[in-house]
């Protein structure tokens, strides 16, 4: 299969690109290379004849049209987005532009391309979204694919809008789509401003490890390589028009997650002071959702997919990867505003 992956220089997109090429798919990586992108994430496939890169903005219709016509993909996996909740609170404009207008532009380009091809029913537009569209849970319950949308941050509202657009293009124009909504990803190549890298990198630098509120917010953690596997499973075997929730079956309170990372760092650096001494509680994020949890029934029963690693295993691999790869993360800290944001998690 030839797959056009948008956002393939980002964290999850690059895992999809690496895995798709490893499985023998041809991949065209369309990415605007924003501050969050890193082509080093796909260096392992850069010279592979199955891989091509196109620098373009999904809001640029002419560029997207040209790339579709030139590469003639069998499917589009749409991951390009502005993805950092804190940045969406500080400046929502780019989230509206990329996540909503960009998705609309891509849908229109995909519809024209699919029309021009004679509307093959084998074509797939796979939209990758978040469980944050469902809002916040209390202590009980899990998100199913039928949970009503209740987004509460500019980021999640923009992703919810994009999900609605994709469903509308399926209903109105018959575009063959599948959608996925996943929980928090973690793993190698995670951009340094996100929670788990912030904890690891601040601890390595002896800086305070910031924890929002009392650290009681609960997230489900999905190892990024498991997620890439789930996405390719849904793309190739998912039922047309359907949404699938993807979770890691790994719920943890933020403070427990941070303590687990500190314990792993203590094992690697036994001579350093206990890393948990650096934990510092900071004012909570506005509108901070208390708990997200995924009911994995649909993807596990229909497609037989389940995560392969526990949080303990995935975190151990992730901490070891950051310790082994300072050449990857050090230059990213010097990018605009990124190092300064390490104070927040
Ligand atoms: P990321 O921020 O690491 O990467 C996003 C990529 O998209 C970057 O390479 C960036 O250059 C590119 N991009 C941004 N704007 C673009 C534009 N206008 N045109 C073309 N490319 C553009 O994001 P991620 O964490 O890999 O997330 C990928 C997708 O998964 C997003 O749609 C996100 O909403 C969704 N998601 C992420 C998580 C998570 O935990 N990271 C959880 C749920 C859903």
UniProtKB/TrEMBL annotation:
Has UniProt tagged this entry with the keyword Lyase? Answer: yes
Catalytic function, reaction form: dTDP-alpha-D-glucose = dTDP-4-dehydro-6-deoxy-alpha-D-glucose + H2O
Required co-factor(s) are:
NAD(+)
- What Enzyme Commission number does this protein have? 4.2.1.46
Which part of the chain is the NAD(P)-binding domain? 4-317
Gene3D superfamilies, per database record: NAD(P)-binding Rossmann-like Domain (3.40.50.720), UDP-galactose 4-epimerase, domain 1 (3.90.25.10)
An example molecular function term from Gene Ontology annotations: dTDP-glucose 4,6-dehydratase activity
Give the matching SUPFAM superfamilies.
Answer: NAD(P)-binding Rossmann-fold domains
What are the alphabetically sorted keywords of the record? Answer: Lyase, NAD
* InterPro entries in UniProt: dTDP_Gluc_deHydtase (IPR005888), NAD(P)-bd_dom (IPR016040), NAD(P)-bd_dom_sf (IPR036291), SDR_fam (IPR002347)
Q: Name one GO biological process term.
A: nucleotide-sugar metabolic process
Q: Which domain of life is it from?
A: Bacteria
Q: Does the keyword Lyase apply?
A: yes
PANTHER family in the cross-refs = DTDP-D-GLUCOSE 4,6-DEHYDRATASE-RELATED (PTHR43000)
Q: Which protein family is named in the record?
A: Belongs to the NAD(P)-dependent epimerase/dehydratase family. dTDP-glucose dehydratase subfamily.
Against NCBIfam families, the record matches this protein to: dTDP_gluc_dehyt (TIGR01181)
> By what name is this protein known?
dTDP-glucose 4,6-dehydratase
Task: Name its species.
Answer: Yoonia rosea
